[in-house]
Amino acid sequence: MNRSTDTGRLASYAANDASSRGRQFPEPPPLYRSEYQRDRDRIIHSTAFRRLMYKTQVFVYDEGDLYRTRLTHSLEVAQIARSVAVALQLNEPLTEAIALAHDLGHTPFGHAGQDALNEAMRDYGGFEHNLQSLRVVDLLEEKYAEFPGLNLTFEAREGILKHCSLANACQLGELGQRFLDRRQPGLEAQLANLADEIAYNNHDVDDGLRAGLLSVEQLQETKLFRQPFAEVQRRYPRLPARRLIHETVRRMINRLITDLIEQSRTNLNAAAPASIEDVRAQSAPLITFSKTVGEQSRTLSRFLRQHLYYHSQVRRAAENADQVIKGLFSAYFKQPTLLPNTSTTADDTAARARQIADYIAGMTDRFALREYQRLTGGSVSLSGTA
Ligand code: MG
What we know:
386 residues, mainly alpha, Hypothetical protein af1432, binds magnesium ion
């Protein structure tokens, strides 16, 4: 048999082709790949994936070439998630697919953009970036003759839909059901979620220090940074500052990943799920940090929220992002013919609002800025430094 099914090195509780709930539009199985390798490959070839290169993670694209974008963030999430997947004998291609797709629905300008679009959409069902990632892979990508979207497996879609309001869950059929029943997704989805947390916490420390928005002294407030920083200083007293920081961040990531693997192994041994269905039936996730390290990670997240995401410079950029997103939304809403697919413009107001939200969410930072300038004549800087 030519088909690669990946099952040889998989634990019984991992996702596998044989137990997959399949695709919305049935397709013949791939010849030389597993179903989840095909999912991953479709994501990499998607338009939305390429656009991640020009979307803000925390810092706007023109602030410097060394900061993370959503693309490099997604690659880091995938790297971390794959390492853990192999250690736990989970399905690596599925884990990678979910990690690479997890931010596809993000608006331009990071969280500021998402908040602005959510407010603009308040009367029309709001805007959630997780749900938007699912819309991208289910509907918005136009790549195949026989179906809309990428027609990914249930398991990949389940992983991409990390959170969702109960109101929206009710509309999503089988995929939304777990939010209503308070059940879990597969382990690969649980893992991609925590790999995201590990990636952004650590790279935001790195980027925040590089930008001069955070200081080493401030970061000492958090145990996750303080301990490895002191270890590295003790062991390499004359290390230049850049390498001192990188060596510290490397150790932070390592500590989180090691803890995640070890605690999850303990959880899996205790719960002993025999299949992905057993995993889904659990009342709590099985991929977790230990209590101590989980608390340290959350403390670091809170620290970053307070000192980096709410830093006056980042907030100034956020206020400008708000103006751009809302300006675009109202311009399209007043004059729908400005939208590219005017022939399909919906008559119904809510449907038209959703069409506009889909269009704006798909924009890169620089396209949104150019479009805003073109439509409103207004000029806005997003670097926060001007
Ligand atoms: Mg992310």
